Amino acid sequence: xxxxxxxxxxxxxxxxxxxxxxxxxxxxxxxxxLRAKTxxxxxxxxxxxxxxxxxxxxxxFLEWYAVERPLSAEVPGAGAAPxxxxxxQGVPGVADDLLAALxxxxxxxxRMLETRPASVLLEDLIGGGLWEVDERRKIAxxxxxxxxxxxxxxxxxxxxxxxxFLTHPLEAEAAIxxxxxxxxxxxxxxxxxxxxxxxxxxxKAERYRNLPAARLYAGEAGTWR
Length: 225
Known about the structure:
The structure is a single chain. The chain has about 220 residues and is an alpha+beta fold. It has a domain at about 5-105. It has helices at about 5-25, 30-45, 55-65, 80-90, 95-105, 175-185, 190-205, 215-220; strands at about 105-115, 120-125, 130-135, 145-155, 160, 165-170. It is globular, with a radius of gyration of 17 Å. The N and C termini lie far apart (about 50 Å).
């Protein structure tokens, strides 16, 4: 039985994401999901079904498509994220405050500073500042000091996590922090671009496990602008 408010928010946001994806992948939008997948693979690297990162990355992709990726010029809602267009149309069975929460999400690279009984304290390494996120679950693979990409939503007075996390190797921390610091001086596009660049590095690190992650990340950090 789901009884924690943050868990209810997770479930409701997940259902809202699915509803937006369903609405924005049919009719005139039928080809948009494939276009979006091709675009994201170009930025973050291609994954295959037998890759360990495949399933969580595909889940994160659908979330990204729904709340962040601008619709193509040739379809209704061009230039806006699917959730913005869907909200204007109305999404049956989804409350408007949930759609507003999706539209206002924040994706960044975080450091886990502290775990608490019903929340976690995060440092935003790109945008700066601290976030206290409602979270009662034990998140597999994440502990204090870890670095990871995540998406945050503000809904009904709470800050909650999105669907998936992408952890980064701590041995590459210096290069990761350097990339985040550079991106933090730029605009919103630069910040999101840094997340994509780091995701591409994480895919490389998974594929080339024989290479030291610190060297792989540092080599890219030295050339990225």
